[in-house]
Batch of 2 targets.
Target 1
Amino acid sequence: MKNHHIDTLCVQAGHTPQGGDPRVLPIVQSTTFKYDTCDAMGQLFDLEAAGYFYSRLANPTCDTVAQKIAALEGGVAAMLTASGQAASFFSLFNICGAGDHIVSTGPLYGGTFNLFNVTMRKMGIAFTFVDPDNDIEVLRQAFQANTKAVFAESLSNPSGVVLDIEKFAALAHEHQVPLIVDNTFPTPIHCRPFEWGADIVVHSTTKYMDGHATSVGGALVDSGNFDWSRFPDKYPGLCQPDPSYHGLVYTERFGKGAYITKAVAQLMRDLGASPAPMNAFLLNIGLETLHLRMRRHSENALAVAKFLENHPRVAWVNYCALPSSKYFGLCQKYLPNGASGVIAFGVQGGREASVAFMERLTLGAIVTHVADARTSLLHPASTTHRQLSEAELIEAGVSQDLIRLSVGIENAEDIVRDLEKALAVDS
Ligand code: PLP
């Protein structure tokens, strides 16, 4: 499959049936798997043999879909998780623990910010949040001797900040740590972070990858490029014996597969954020049309963003594919074929006017979701980012009047007409 275009990978990677196999990915709805001898199963428990024994750790349907996502991102290995939150948590907790420190960009999905700033801090992991637009000299000051990774979103939710991935990869690598990129919004159709130096990619597959709002899910992908074995003291979990596997050393046994193998064998075993095979099946159906949908989302969103920008009742618009955007240059570099369907904007009159406008729409729906085939909207300050203080909202790039508009794949003229009507009414 390697030499095929990404469109072909969307449709065909992962499940490659042979003579007589089902053409469609089968749903292996089984928690458990049968072996003839205790020893044969014991080999799996020791990671001596590859295979399935319990779906909390791994399941053939889920693994097949993970392989498709690895192919789309150009990675060496991947795993699915029950949610995007679990993928973000695993991406870091696989390589850090109490006493460690992470550098993260500030403009993040609100749930990720809470995960880092509240829950993981309780676990003894420290975070420094940085402004991704700062110069590299300023960004360097965020690093400490115990820094284990840099985390960032390629296209931030909801503020629409485009990450300078090359700058962040250089920054992470000069401090000998990996760059982890949440690539949920662009998807590999519009941006492949590994090609710009990122080491690990995470996804909330709940969004565009599924695309139809049917299944919550996440994915973790390894480029295989970060050489953990060069830093055995920094990454003891990967480079030193694991007492829960009779002293096995992941980097020695699994080479480029070490990071994902450890995340499956240790984190999934112990934390159990496993995806349901049925959800993986639905995700795979979504992936089969990802390339078509991403193009349509992006075309529609550009048309909508242009309309909003020229409307006198719209206070501001942030969509990086607009030449007026602060991120237009980075967008042309990292997202040349489309900037996804998500637009942030505010209506004249502040928070109340923005909320009142949203409630007048008929086609666009108010939902706690984004990146869906149907046009949808959310007011982050009163929902996803509600728990953040005023200062944290500013850090996350969320103003009180910000509307997150997720442009769907309907006809763009119908979407614009809906917005036009709602804007025409005095608020
Ligand atoms: N990352 C981004 C960019 C998101 O937008 C979200 C959810 O909105 C997540 C991660 C968390 O994903 P999930 O809701 O699948 O747990």
Target 2
Amino acid sequence: MSNHPGNRTSSHSGHTTPDRTGLGVPSDAERLPMTVPSLMEHKQRGEPLVMVTCYDYPSARIVEESGVDLVLVGDTAAMTVLGYDSTVPVTVDELLVLVKAVRRGLRSPLLVGDLPFGSYEVSDEQAVITAQRFVKEGGCDAVKLEGGGVMIERARAIASTGIPVVGHVGLTPQTATALGGFKAQGRTANRAFLLVKDALALQDAGCCCVVFEAIPAAVAEVVMERIEIPVIGIGAGGSTDGQVLVWHDLLGLYEWGSPRFVKRYADLRPQILDALRRYSSEVRAGQFPTSEYTYSIDPAELSELRELLA
Ligand code: KIV
């Protein structure tokens, strides 16, 4: 296996290639790199976009093979990988380590890096400098930032430098305190109106795509009737152009519960725990390693060694 999954120079009109797996997943060789223009082509063809978060190299190799369209190194890494109790403390330098590892493992999905709290809000200049680090040092294809209001200007500033920007409205975890906690947004006519306005303003600011998080499905449908850029939903119902889920949620890697909108596609934590317990018990019982897992030496060499030591 090569350590370098390849370059992304090829462009194409359409990400989907013939399916030889029967699961809608083209093989490694058949898969073409996803590009920003091809996001729009997917939307126009009505082909749902699949996005997942990812935070390290081995997971990126699996994600690559799975054939998803977009990968987000989310600031959720703060909680899922780094053990902080919110997304607020994670720094650009911490996230860049993860982004670079994921970049090394990916070839075809579009890689989006999440700008963490405090790294883009202060000024357009700060936003552009941070976004450039994600592209230049991290190898991201696009960056994501949270919020409407003044953040629309930050999105415009970044997009104007040629860096593709993904917006994020609805529940924006970086500012969850101001929103009254981790709860669904846009549940009154006035709040939903502001949300629609923010989504359309992010589009006008040049965003190539926008994430809707934790909003009523009917509100998402209202925006979908008006918006032209692709929309990726998480807890926003089925009308959006695609879906995103967090790696640890969809694979069942934590013992605690997940938000209402999470579907667990696997329950890996018990399997990992079981493997670790069997390993511990075999080491403690002297059952591992057996000769199968051990190097040998020519008996003559061994005798010579003993003579040398005598
Ligand atoms: O940081 C993240 O993982 C996200 C997704 C939940 C969209 O923003």
